[in-house]
Amino acid sequence: MELLNQQILDNLEKNETFAIATIITHQGSTPRTSGSKMVVLKDKTIYGTIGGGLVEAMVIDVCVDMISQNRCSIREFTLDQELKDGLDMVCGGALSVMIETVIPDPGLASMFHALADLETEGKKGFLVSKIQGFSKSDFTMQKCLVLPDGSIFGNNMLPKSLFDAILDNKFHGSAPIIHNHNLDEFIIEPILAKECIYIFGAGHVGFQLARIAHITGFQTIIIDDREEFANYQRFPHAREVQAVKHFSNAFDNLKIDNNSYIVILTRGHLHDQTVLEAALKTSPAYIGMIGSRTKRDKIYANLLQKGIAKKILGAVYSPIGLEIDAQTPGEIAVSIMGEIIKKRYSN
Known about the structure:
By secondary structure, the chain is an alpha/beta fold. Helix content is 33%, strand content 25%.
């Protein structure tokens, strides 16, 4: 979403009307799932994707039509149709897609700036749209962004009971939902804390891993004890870069949660052991450590002597990465990223 939000902001600043297509629900086999988004311009230029193929082309056409009318719509699409048209992308699923015409105004720009800040800071929130009309026909919308502290950006059109329910985190999951409140319809989109890879080690593999993580939609925090490696010039897309004096206190200011992925790539076995020992006291989605089985077994033996349970060590991914016979730093980074992506979707 981060790159899409930047494109949204760019178009708002250019004062250009455009459309956002969001998958509300999906059933059966579909190339993209609920919450996937695509920005569509008047000339059919797109940013992002809801899956490609004939359905995406049909959605683009509807987007352009909605832009011309300054209207919004929720449309149903079935992917079975692609077989009838002789295309080779047949999934057999169905999508419900919200198509929203975005007309630039200062309040909307402020709201999307706040949304971009939320994502950059790895915080949660809710994007709420009130349907002006009826969801089964074309309509217009009012939007607002609700921050965790109760701040609201955009049109404050929320009934108090709905606002309280949002702050009480009554709306779970990661996909947008249509919520009926008395006679009004709202679309509530959770803005989840973005998944973040904590890369301990800013050397060759860490450098390549950060690049791949960026293009696959992860945020990165880089930690190393060498300032010449740990800097924003080397990692321009990182959310944060830390040059620490010692890896022993590298976790002091980190907020590790179940959206966190820890990758240990430091310049020495002792540093790897120090980081791994600290990492095992946290609860991330993934911990991986580079190195041979011989190195891993030696570090594990040391940690077992320190009282760390064998079962806990067994959850660590080491040697790190998928088995693809990777050799170069770039190839190793690909294997690590592949393992992380596999873990991301297995949760």
